[in-house]
Structure formats: structure tokens, C-alpha cells
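Lab notebook, bench 4. The sequencing result for the construct came back, and we need a structural model before the next group meeting so we can plan mutations. Quick request posted to the team channel:

Model the 3D structure of this chain.
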Amino acid sequence: MRKSLRAMLSEPKVVVAGGFILLLLLVAAFAPWIAPRDPLEQDLMLGTLPPAGYDGAEPGYWLGTDDLGRDVLSRLIHGSRIALTVAFVAAGLAALLGTTLGLLAGWYRGWVDVVISRLVDIWMAFPPVLLSILLVAVFGSGVHSVIAAIVIIDWTRFCRVVRSETMAQAQNDYVIAARTIGFPRFRILVSEILPNVAPVLVALVSLEMGIAVIVEAILSFVGLSVSSDTPTWGGMIAQGRAIIYQGWWVLVAPLVMLFLTVLAFNQLGDGLRRALDPMMRR
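Done. Here's the predicted structure in C-alpha cell form:
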């Protein structure tokens, strides 16, 4: 455990990207106390105020206001709560479902592998974004519907990768030795193969978190995520797009945060894989 922790802390990508995500988590957790203003408070007299440093800016509105006079910084901070909730919960559930099926398919093979593989092929034939929009439209708007749509769609990503890694690990000497000794097959799967699949799985989970953030932003952009009153990055992008010539900052601020968050999740996944995979540390 300590060796793995030292390896992670010695990887620059883990330190930088992980630090950014940790900071974002703290901001989201303490959003009501950190945000300078109520994200829903409107003041039409203060509509489309520019960010601090520009002509016409007002003190206390660091990133300006939108066309309804709402503080952009406060809405950005509160929007991180939705983005991170969807990222962690959806990625975790998709990983749990996909990994379980992938391990079973790659280890037991036979009819189990055939059934799961055919199910994955059928599921991946549907365009993911269109399917997610359809599912949310059927389930209704809300964070739970967005999470359910992401899990239903993206479990296949984990299943295919974990199945392939499980089949590769099953050919290694340590697995053959465990079977020769007489270890039960399920014990070999859980105690021998799963730990060696973990580095790839960790990287995939981090990547899926970034994808979940993008999917939630897309659904918010088209009005299929949470209610329009709740601040979300996708909703802010949609609003900023409509008033880009009057208030470009309303569009730019959430776009920058979306880009940095997805980049951080991707770099964290790559760094964790390098730190945890003994073959890549050599």
C-alpha cells in the first residue's frame, strides 16, 4: 500500500491532475460558503456586467453576470456539484456493472462469454449520445436520469476492456500455478486476476468520469438534465451561446472549466496507470 502511494505521489500527472480534482471537490462540497452570491439571485439592472478588470465591471462580480444579472462565478461554483456528482456516481456504477460482466466473460468463457459479448455488440451499435438523450427523455429530467443513462450506455466500455485483460491474465504463469495447486476458480478470479486488471480499470474509471462530465453538459445544454433553475455548466454554455455578443464571458467561463476538468480526469487516469502498473514503471 505504501509502495503504491509513493509511486502515485512520484507521478507528476497524478499530483497535478489529482490536486486540481481534489480542489474542485472541495469547492463543490463547500459551494454554499465559497460562492460569493446566491447563484439564483437575479438583478436585471446588473445584467451582462463584464468580468473584473473590464470597463463597466462592478466590485464583487469577478466573472461578471449573465443577462439576468446572476453572478457567473457563483453559478460556476454551484455547477461543479452537478458535474462531479454525475462523474463519480455514474462512472462508479458503470465500472461495477461492466467489470463484473467482463470478468465473468473473460474467465469462464464458453456460453457466458458468448451471451455477454453479443449483448455488448448489440448495445454498442446504438449511437451513445443519441441513446443517452432518448433514455433521459424517457426517464424524465433529473440527475438520477442522467446517471442512469450514462450507466446503461457506458458499462460496455468497461466490459470489453476488462474481458480482454482477463483473458490475457488467465494465460500467465501465476494463474496456471494457482489452478494447479487447486484454488477454486472464483477465488483465482477475485484474488489473482482482479488485482492485476486494476491498473487498467483505474485509468478507465478516470477517463469515464471525464466522459460523464461531457455527457451531463450535453444533456444540460439541450435542457434534458436538471431543471433550468439549477446552475449547470451545460446550461450556462447554452445561455452564453444565446448572448455571446453581449456577454462572451457567460460562455467562456463554463467552457474553460469543462475543458480543464475533463483534461484533469484524463491525465489522472494516465498517471495512475503508470504509477500502479509495474510493467510501465520499469
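The radius of gyration is 22 Å.
Will bring this to the meeting.
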